[in-house]
């Protein structure tokens, strides 16, 4: 977006063509008037291909006002613009659509079928945390640590292993041993407590509760570590990035909606 704006300004179109300035002002006024008539108004495209957002690929709480506004500007200016201005307008439209549109599906479900892996719900995540806490308390932390040493390479903690959960990275692969150690010990054990202390415990309280309203059921330490937690209902174990690399396979590909 910034590159497109810079390219447009460097072209000197506004300076060399004063009409461009008034054309932009007129587009803003026209777009505002058209949008104020009805929130569902769709401007004519004037040879511009308009892609109507599909309810299957957008979240229900998406705000379409920026899309309508920019589409109106593009429709008004496109037939009057120079080639350089057309590129800027198209870049503006595509950037706005990519910024406003958000896929409605969850991250894990875009890579795996429901029979393989689903996003772990808040209840299951809470049960796993309680199991980890009970095991750590009963064994003075030693037994839990030894157990974690053997299952960290599978992207699990003892509680997650008992409940069939895996730590998943943003590329769809299972977290390996190093990433699991980083998430559990560095992020949850050191970084997150420091942040909670600096915020007088507010972040510490919100951290585990965040999964109650988050679309991907992420806690705040998942946000920091860029991880998700998935549940395998039938014993499926997702592959890690290292395992895929060793067998010459590519990373998981997002499934079509």
How would you briefly describe this protein structure?
The protein is mainly alpha-helical and 257 residues long.
Mean pLDDT: 75
List SSEs in N-to-C order.
Answer: HHHHHEHHHEHHHEH
Total strands:
3
Strand content: under 5%
Give the termini separation: 27 Å
Strand neighbour order, sheet with most strands:
1-3-2
Q: Give the number of helices.
A: 12
Give the overall silhouette. Answer: globular
Given helix and strand content, the structural type is mainly alpha
Question: How large, in whole angstroms, is the Cα Rg?
Answer: 25 Å
Percent range of helical residues: 40-55%
Number of domains: 2
The largest β sheet comes out as: 3 strands, antiparallel
The parts where pLDDT drops under 50 for at least 5 residues are 1-22, 31-66, 98-103
Describe the structure.
- Helix 1 (2-10) runs antiparallel to helix 5, helix 4 (65-77) runs antiparallel to helix 5 and helix 9 (177-198) crosses helix 10.
- This protein has helices at 2-10, 13-16, 18-37, 65-77, 83-100, 122-138, 142-151, 158-162, 177-198, 202-209, 220-225, 241-246; strands at residues 118-119, 165-169, 227-231.
- It has 257 residues and is mainly alpha-helical.
- Mean pLDDT is 75; it is low at 1-22, 31-66 and 98-103.
Search tags:
disordered N terminus, single chain, about 260 residues, about 55% helix, three-stranded antiparallel β-sheet
Spell out the blueprint of helices and strands.
Elements lengths: L1 H9 L2 H4 L1 H20 L27 H13 L5 H18 L17 E2 L2 H17 L3 H10 L6 H5 L2 E5 L7 H22 L3 H8 L10 H6 L1 E5 L9 H6 L11
Antiparallel strand pairs: 1-3, 2-3
């Amino acid at each position: 977006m910034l590159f497109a704006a810079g390219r447009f300004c460097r072209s000197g179109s506004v300076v060399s063509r004063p009409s461009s300035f008034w054309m932009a002002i007129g587009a803003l006024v026209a777009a505002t008037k058209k949008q104020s008539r009805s929130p569902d108004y769709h401007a004519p495209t004037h040879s511009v291909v308009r892609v109507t957002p599909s309810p299957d690929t957008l979240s229900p709480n998406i705000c379409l006002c920026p899309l309508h506004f920019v589409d109106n500007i593009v429709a008004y200016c496109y037939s009057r613009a120079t080639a350089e201005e057309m590129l800027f307008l198209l870049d503006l439209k595509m950037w706005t659509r990519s910024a406003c549109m958000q896929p409605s599906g969850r991250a894990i479900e875009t890579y795996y079928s429901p029979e393989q892996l689903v996003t772990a719900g808040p209840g299951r995540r809470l049960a796993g945390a309680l199991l980890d806490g009970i095991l750590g308390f009963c064994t003075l932390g030693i037994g839990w640590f030894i157990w974690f040493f053997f299952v960290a390479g599978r992207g699990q903690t003892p509680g997650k292993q008992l409940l069939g959960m895996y730590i998943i990275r943003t590329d769809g692969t299972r977290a390996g041993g190093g990433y699991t150690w980083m998430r559990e010990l560095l992020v949850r054990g050191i970084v997150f407590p420091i942040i909670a202390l600096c915020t007088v415990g507010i972040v510490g309280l919100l951290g585990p509760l965040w999964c109650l309203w988050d679309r991907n059921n992420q806690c705040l330490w998942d946000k920091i570590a860029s991880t998700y937690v998935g549940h395998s209902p039938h014993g499926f174990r997702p592959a890690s990035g290292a395992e895929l690399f060793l067998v010459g396979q590519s990373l998981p590909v997002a499934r079509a909606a």
